[in-house]
Amino acid sequence: MICLAGLLATVSASPAIAQARDFTSQEQRVVDLTSAAISLRSVRGEGNETGKVAELFRDALLYAGWSADEIEIVPVDDTAYFIATWQGRDASLGPIVLSAHMDVVEAKPEDWERDPFTPVLADGYLFGRGASDTKFDAVQAMVAVMELRQANFVPERSIVLAFSGDEETTMITSAMIAERLRDAQLVLNVDGASGTLDEETGEPSYWSWQGAEKTYADFELEVTNPGGHSSAPRDDNAIVQLSAALARIGAHRFTPELNDITRDYFTKAAQFESDPLLAAAMRAFAADPADKAAVAVLRGNPAYIGRIGTTCVPTQVEAGHALNALPQRATAYVNCRIFPGHPKEEIMAELSRVADEPAMTIREINPEYVVAAPASPYDAEFVGAVTRAIHAAFGEVPVLASQSSGASDSMWYRALGVPSYGASGTFMRESDEYAHGLNERVPLANIGRSLEYYRVLLTELASQ
After folding, report:
1. DSSP state, residue 135
2. Could you write out the DSSP letters of every residue in 294-306?
3. Region 215-254+310-338+341-365: CATH code
4. What is the residue range of the signal peptide feature (predicted)?
5. What does the DSSP 8-state code read for residue 131?
């Protein structure tokens, strides 16, 4: 059991966040709760404090007037997941789910400029592991729901806060939550898509919602031989055979393709691209994904190569057993990000054909941790609602669709036929993207506007 008042008092009194005093009370609540969550080391393995993050969020809701029977914390192995339900007036209607995750990736203090699990507020940013992925966004969504309830809003549909505990690793709790909430009307995943700030002015440039994500898959490729003495080399050398296969895979390019989500993105995002050649390629690709010149330009840019189709890349190699022996085994791992609509088996078969090595075997590893999922539908009602909410909070900024090359909890909902949309209210400069990296941080200037975005959006969606 976490003492909420004590933990928040300890965090708030820290010199590291002394600059937080000019926030409004609701903005201060976001800063304090996020800081308290960052201070809890919610990393898989020994000492995992994800369950304590869940207790922190539970206590915050109880302090805001929720009842204990509306909140559930479910321990799973060394982690836990969190579900809080604000019951709507009509129980027959599918709920609106706000999805996030409480766990974070590992961070080693010796590599950071600041301790990753000590929240630091400086220069308008909150630093710490989980600041941008995704404790800050989870807290903003939760505080917005608190505000709506305290303002006596009565939703027609239930509003559910559903936070997983292992999104960064096995996603076991992610799948469990999705199964429990498979009757949802739609999911708003605050860990996915967001707004972009102008690098120079810091003002909102555009906002994107995420309607699809590529399927993550790892494949193991292996060649085995009898081996022997290195003084008597043979043609069937496992390292040579596997190396040649990997070279062919590395040179392979999957067919470029579009869906409604990425077509919308390339069409609209081209106007924000400062490089005329790249902007022209984006427009040409949106019009014709078979345009070879446009594809060549996009493939030459790291920001876009993953957006135009499936990608597979060798990431690890293990081979041999002695310096003076022919290798008996050579193993490689290929990581793929698969464009929606293609089963993993199809991609594995294509890799096998491209490798063109009869002695090589290929298999998927850890398939239970991911699932192939289609894109969410391009829902005009949803797009209209988020557009109105963004405009109400941030002004008339352009709104774009997007597809993620990463993986999130959304895939588990989409695999069950539940529309899930990345819809964070956070705006950041692209140069401030440090999620999973060193010195992770999030800007704090727009907390009030983000809360307004969530309030407007939830009021509309939960009233339908």
Report:
1. I
2. HHHHHHTSTTTGG
3. 3.30.70.360
4. 1-18
5. I
Supply the pLDDT for residue 303. 83
- Cβ burial of 136 (10 Å; 0-12, 13-18, 19+) is buried
Report d(CA 200, CA 377) in Å as an integer. 35
Least confident of 110-114, 171-175, 347-351, 356-360: 110-114
Identify whether the C-beta of residue 181 lies closer than 8 Å to the C-beta of residue 75. no
For residue 444, which of 147, 35, 5 has the smallest C-alpha distance?
A: 35
Q: Judge contact between 122 and 59, C-beta under 8 A.
A: no
Q: Which residues of the chain form CATH 3.40.630.10?
A: 25-213+375-463
Q: Residues 50-66: pLDDT tens digits?
A: 999 999 999 999 999 99
Alpha carbon 444 to chain centroid distance? 20
Q: What is the distance between the alpha carbons of residues 213 and 107, in angstroms, rounded to a whole number?
A: 25
Residue type, 154: V
Long-range contacts made by residues 366-372, C-beta under 8 angstroms, separation at least 24?
A: 366/218, 367/217, 369/169, 369/170, 369/171, 370/171, 370/215, 370/216, 370/217, 370/407, 370/411, 371/175, 371/215, 371/411, 371/412, 371/415, 372/215, 372/338, 372/342, 372/343, 372/344, 372/411, 372/415
Tokens for 120?
């630091």
DSSP for 205-266? Answer: EEEEEEEEEPEEEEEEEEEE---EETTS--S--HHHHHHHHHHHHHH--PPP---HHHHHHH
- Helix, strand, coil shares of the chain as percentages rounded to 5? 40, 20, 40
For 175, the token pair is: 């799948």
Res 376: pLDDT: 93
In angstroms, how far is CA 128 from the centroid of its own chain? 17
Helices (H), 258-398: 260-269, 276-287, 292-299, 344-355, 380-394
Cβ proximity of 406 and 210 under 8 Å: no
- Is the distance from CB of 33 to CB of 51 less than 8 angstroms? no
pLDDT at position 194 is 87
Residue 12 pLDDT more than 70? Answer: no
241-to-234, 236, 351 alpha-carbon distances in Å: 11, 7, 15
Tell me what pLDDT residue 315 has.
96
Pair of tokens at residue 420: 């899930």
Distance of alpha carbon 341 from its chain centroid, rounded? 19
List the helix and strand counts (H, then E) for the chain.
Answer: 13, 19
Could you please state the CATH topology (level 3) that the domain comprising 25-213+375-463 is classified under.
Answer: Aminopeptidase (3.40.630)
Please check the confidence at residue 175 and state whether its pLDDT lies above 90. Answer: yes
pLDDT value of position 3: 54
Which residue type does 174 have? S
- The backbone torsions φ and ψ at residue 85, rounded to the nearest 5 degrees and listed phi first, read -115, 120
- How far, CA to CA in Å, does 85 sit from each of 50, 239, 371, 444? 20, 55, 26, 28
